[in-house]
Amino acid sequence: MERTDSNNQLTLPAELYLLACDLETEKLTKRDVIGNVLRAAVLVELTDRGCLTDDGGKARTVGDRRTGDPVLDDALRGISADKPRKWKAQVQQHRKQGFQAVEQQLERGRLIGIERRTWRYDRIVVKDQALVKRLRAEVVETLTSGRPVEDYSTRQAALTALAAVGQFPTVTSGKERREHKKRIKALTERAGEAGPALKKALADMDIATAVAVGAAISAGQN
């Protein structure tokens, strides 16, 4: 499936935010990992645009290049001002701020409407549901078509890989991810350094959660 003009107007992190939206329940899914996923998407797009490069396993900015997108450029300035970090560490940086920046950008662009709630998760209303359905169809096609991974652009591979690694239930089921495990791995590698880095960052989160749960259980038994 080729990208449409309307798709091309959105950044990769914006597309992934929309993919995480459940159109029926009007909620954002995977809130525990969405910050990491969007940060990885920012890194993929900055690399794809020639603003970031890999230098011995670390992300480095390329000159004073800018994209013209405020969210991407703000992230780029932050990376430039900071010490060089490995890709996994970059995925773990500024997750909350990056998430809020993408969400606010979509809200200002009237692509989503947000009903702020005090005691429940915010209600997220996607204005152009047809766009989200096209994005989901693109992900499914990329994942299941059998076409060589090299036929897809870095950005297309990343859209599918990051949604799959983030385990977005709005896009793929656990069964589908198991069936296409090798394909997801290939697409993740095709996405560049940020794809595998996201997988490692989420694995660290799982380990930390397991340790915390184990400690709580142990403390309760004593």
Automatic annotation (TrEMBL):
<keyword id="KW-0472">Membrane</keyword>
<dbReference type="Pfam" id="PF05719">
    <property type="entry name" value="GPP34"/>
</dbReference>
<keyword id="KW-0333">Golgi apparatus</keyword>
<protein>
    <submittedName>
        <fullName>GPP34 family phosphoprotein</fullName>
    </submittedName>
</protein>
<dbReference type="InterPro" id="IPR038261">
    <property type="entry name" value="GPP34-like_sf"/>
</dbReference>
<keyword id="KW-0446">Lipid-binding</keyword>
<dbReference type="InterPro" id="IPR008628">
    <property type="entry name" value="GPP34-like"/>
</dbReference>
